[in-house]
Amino acid sequence: MKISVITVSYNSEKTIRDTLKSVYTQSHDSIEHIIIDGNSIDKTTTILKEYESKFENTNIVYKWISEKDNGIYDAINKGIKMATGEVVGILNSDDYYTDSSVLADISETFVNKECECLYANLKYIDPTTEKVTRDWKSKPFRNGLFEKSWTPAHPTFYCKKSVYDKYGLYRTDFKIAADVELMYRFLEKNNILSHYLDRYIVTMRQGGVSSSGLKSTIIITKEMIRAFKDNGNHLNIVKYLFYKGLKLKEFIIDNN
Q1: How far apart are CA 179 and CA 19, in angstroms?
Q2: Which residues, in sequence order, are bridge partners of residue 205?
Q3: Best label site of 82, 125, 175, 254, fewest CB within 10 Å?
């Protein structure tokens, strides 16, 4: 099974080598890696060019473009449109796979399980100390979980290309919660078949678009209200915020 991995980058010279290396060392035998760069002004594109020769020595199809985009979700949509794999996943330019068998395990799961998407576990690390700051262990999906402030860890979300073709891409009118809206649209509204792969597949450096802060929490909450409404549902905001507060246990506090 061919898997298309989409990486969106902008001025990612400090981290993108780890991302690229974690893809080209995968053991799976049918991979397409698509990098959508947003006209970086640092050395990101130099690194992308450098890795062309490294990928030539693998069985991985390696593609990259660098051009202006209208934000991260627009860039992801570009990648999905370019993808030729049966399954599509996102690997951020400051993230990396936990080991070399991740994509092989994902492919095996799609082959052996009746599912249209899967998701797994994720660890956040401090970008300086590399200490784990958040342990995101997921669970099997059931209707009603999104209202309890539950979502799959988006960097672990892999979905059949046919689902995007049928139900649409990421909405570019959302600032930071288009990933949650898309997963809600796929899982809750359209009831696609999902599978929870109970293993860690991605390590993510803390500091993403929607990872922390009161301002981002307010924006996410407003966008969640709109996501529910636009998909024919109503968000119980009191319930949502209550369960969001309980999620603090996912964060690891270092007292030293």
Answers
A1: 20
A2: 125
A3: 254
The span from the CA of 165 to the CA of 169, in Å, is 8
Consecutive H or E run containing 9: strand 3-9
Q: φ and ψ at 119, to 5 degrees?
A: -150, 165
Q: Is the pLDDT of residue 255 over 70?
A: no
**36 near 9, Cβ under 8 Å?**
yes
Residue 185 is given by DSSP the state: I
State both tokens at 170: 């990421």
Describe the chain by its helix, strand, coil percentages, rounded to 5: 40, 20, 40
Q: Which two tokens stand for residue 47?
A: 């690194």
Residue count (the chain) = 256
**Rounded to an integer, what distance in angstroms lies between the CA atom of residue 75 and that of residue 81?**
10
Our CA dihedral for 244, 221, 130, 13, rounded to 10 degrees, sits at 170
Helix (H, G, I), strand (E, B) or coil at 182: helix
The DSSP annotation for 30-44 comes to -EEEEEEE---SSSH
Look at residues 157, 149, 235 and name the one whose alpha carbon lies nearest to residue 192: 157
Against a cut of 0.85, is the pTM above it?
Answer: yes
Q: How many CB atoms lie within 10 A of CB 157?
A: 21
Which tens digit of pLDDT belongs to each residue from 221-249? Answer: 899 999 999 999 998 888 878 767 766 55
For 56, the token pair is 């030539």
